[in-house]
Amino acid sequence: MKISDIKLAVVGLGYVGLPLAVEFAKKRNVIGFDINLKRIEELKKGFDKTLEIKAKELKKTKKLKFTNSIKDLLDVNCYIITVPTPVDKNKKPDLTPLLLATRTIGKIIKHEDIVIYESTVYPGCIEEKCVPVLEKLSGLRYNKNFFCGYSPERVNPGDKIHKIKNIKKIVSGSNKYATNIVDQIYKQIITAGTHKANSIKVAEAAKVIENTQRDLNIALINELSILFNRMSINTQAVLKAAGTKWNFLPFKPGLVGGHCIGVDPYYLTHKAKSIGYDPKIILAGRRLNDNMGRYVASKLIREMKKKSILIKKSKILIMGLTFKENCPDLRNSGVTDIIKKLINHKCKIHLHDPWTNDHEVLKTYKIKPIKKLKNNHYDVIIIAVAHKQFKKMGIDKIMKLAKKKKIIFDLKNLFGSTKSDFQL
What we know:
By secondary structure, this protein is of the alpha/beta class. It has 2 domains: 3-198, NAD(P)-binding Rossmann-like Domain (Rossmann fold, 3-Layer(aba) Sandwich); 292-424, Rossmann fold (3-Layer(aba) Sandwich), CATH 3.40.50.720. Helix content is 38%, strand content 13%. β5, α5 and β6 form a beta-alpha-beta unit. It is globular. The model has no long low-confidence stretch (mean pLDDT 94).
């Protein structure tokens, strides 16, 4: 297959798939496929609810066709699957979206077609779980009649600097031929270059350890923060001092959520257990980070008692609900555990986030978010996410929202240690 013969479709148009499809459409015709009809209709009108792509850019992308009809995929010979790979309530990999997309493509792939996956998985998942489905539904043989590739996504939601084209891309294929095809496809859009992994398993493993490493580094700093807090030592001051050494890694304490760092380690540990190895360090870091929201809420309750602020029916404003700053993604946000624990203490919770969709907030928390903030109204204010709107608002205006006897908890150290009652 020549690169000029490629007819491309991106399957799954979320945080990963849509920017990828838009980038490819600058170079070639692309079909953007998603089973969510509402999502397709919004994109056709130029609206991206993830806020990754602006309306102006969407409308001028003439080579990109949005569809939820499988019929529109029949002439395609290269599919890039970019669906979510979450975990279930027991923290086990939920491959439902991945296998659903695979079944959809398995019914229509033809001789010489190539299926490339970008979704984060554990090492071996593509060839052990997805390939058998493709073979069964298509009646074709892997590496004889069709081929697969894996090129893990490295999207950072809300990041307007590290974009797809300037992040080096790992590419891999089911054989040397497929690897070269995958490499040529991505080289059309990736200015930062590509790295050829020598197998799909290597590429899968590389992706899943990227976020596992970050998770463990943050877990260490979170544990140090808990320790220093008990010793009445300012964690931020310690990190600033330690950071003067050239090789000290600049990680900060905080909530760990989202669809990557808070999820990927569970994919790796699932695979480890399936082959008889019980991971120690990875799960220890995950447990600590998973518990940070509850730790923050407990710390706040203790501070309220110290200041003689009545806990029951206290008015607590939480500023920021997303898993990270300047993005509308609520998935796996660490703020959720703070809210749950404070509700259990009968606090009256007020939610405010300029980035989120009101309907999604109501659906997630069963609390209607507020748009207008009242002065002299709150017993506690938690600045949970470092949105640029809060930075622009300034700590003085935020403090005016609180009563005279109050607690300001600047969780992200947005305004410095002297401006809040306590931090991590």
